[in-house]
């Protein structure tokens, strides 16, 4: 998908764009009935000021570039909305501490809570508690497994990231006419469901093309862990054709390990779409030639949609009265050819 289409998706979530039309089907060659006005109203309705609302927010500490962008995007978006009061609570060092802070927030009765949990399964009970107390929850990124724990769930397409990375690798290997490719994978934290989904999408897509992963290492979304695991992987595989690294922050360490080992016979696909990774792709000179997106712009969308939920409004460009229950962002492939289109979304 081109960068311009991504802008269209985000603009739709941010409630800009033309009014949608409902097209009817008819038989017998008759003209279709005229489109009826939508419940959502005309374009621009969502940007009109509404009643003042309080949006509570919690996300893990910004020890990673992507997490820092999540919090910064949420805060910046809230500040741009004159009818929103942004109330951020400390997430603590783990799921238990975040759960305690969020329970206190429930007692303060904000209009809606946006939360990126330390762990979706461990914080699921909070979501259920808040929803039962009449406080809608927007669950961001790390999913609550129980549908009763959230009003809206927004996340990236983790399985789709694996699919996109594998498709790029398959295409490049076929172009090079590599018959028995040696493919490696450097994942993130293995206990997270999102990591498992990324690996599954990667594995499934390779298998459909008759390919497989020769060696897989799990890092921890940090540059240090990426360098360590990449060094082990390079020692285990004296020759490689392609590597998928799940996360561009840990990719900084991966590239350092590649340089230290003086390896360059393979190409690499990154993950998440950091600005630094995109600029590295543009500059050339390293094994990194593409990255697949997992944009922190989802935090901005979470605030925009939380506001509409609290104000009992829907999306102006949709026929339905209410904001949808789920939003999954597309995983898109960024290369040297289209990096300029995506730099704006890099963290």
From TrEMBL:
An example molecular function term from Gene Ontology annotations: carbohydrate binding
Subcellular location per the Swiss-Prot or TrEMBL entry: Cell envelope
Residue ranges constituting the Periplasmic binding protein domain according to the UniProt record: 55-311
Keyword terms of this UniProt record: Signal
Keyword rRNA processing listed: no
Any one GO cellular component localisation term in the record: cell envelope
Family from the record: Belongs to the bacterial solute-binding protein 2 family.
Alphabetized PANTHER family for the sequence: D-ALLOSE-BINDING PERIPLASMIC PROTEIN-RELATED
Protein name as it appears in the record: Sugar ABC transporter substrate-binding protein
UniProt organism field: Catellatospora methionotrophica
């Amino acid at each position: 998908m081109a960068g311009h289409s991504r802008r269209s998706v985000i603009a739709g979530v941010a409630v800009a764009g033309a009014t949608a039309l409902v097209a009817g089907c008819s038989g017998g060659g008759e003209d279709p009935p005229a489109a009826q006005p939508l419940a959502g109203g005309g374009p621009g309705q969502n940007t009109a000021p509404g009643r003042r609302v309080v949006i509570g927010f919690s996300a893990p500490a910004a020890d990673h570039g992507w997490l820092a962008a999540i919090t910064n995007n949420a805060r910046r978006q809230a500040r741009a909305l004159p009818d929103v009061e942004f109330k951020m609570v400390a997430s603590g060092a783990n799921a238990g501490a975040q759960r305690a802070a969020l329970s206190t927030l429930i007692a303060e009765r904000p209009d809606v809570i946006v939360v990126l949990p330390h762990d979706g399964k461990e914080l699921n009970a909070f979501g259920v508690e808040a929803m039962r107390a009449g406080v809608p929850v927007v669950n961001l990124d790390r999913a609550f497994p129980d549908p009763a724990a959230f009003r809206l769930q927004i996340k990236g397409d983790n399985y789709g990231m694996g699919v996109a990375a594998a498709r790029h690798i398959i295409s490049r290997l076929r172009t090079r006419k590599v018959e028995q490719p040696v493919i490696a994978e450097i994942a993130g934290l293995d206990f997270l469901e999102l990591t498992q989904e990324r690996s599954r999408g990667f594995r499934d897509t390779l298998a459909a093309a008759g390919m497989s992963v020769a060696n897989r290492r799990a890092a921890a979304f940090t540059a240090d862990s990426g360098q360590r695991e990449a060094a082990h992987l390079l020692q285990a595989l004296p020759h490689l054709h392609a590597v998928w690294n799940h996360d561009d922050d840990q990719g900084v360490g991966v590239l350092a390990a590649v340089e230290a080992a003086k390896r360059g016979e393979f190409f690499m696909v990154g993950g998440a779409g950091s600005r630094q990774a995109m600029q590295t792709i543009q500059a050339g000179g390293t094994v990194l030639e593409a990255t697949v997106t997992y944009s922190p712009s989802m935090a901005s969308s979470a605030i925009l949609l939380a506001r509409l939920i609290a104000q009992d409004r829907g999306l102006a460009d949709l026929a339905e009265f209410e904001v949808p229950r789920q939003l999954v962002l597309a995983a898109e492939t960024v290369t040297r050819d289209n990096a300029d289109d995506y730099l704006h979304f890099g963290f």
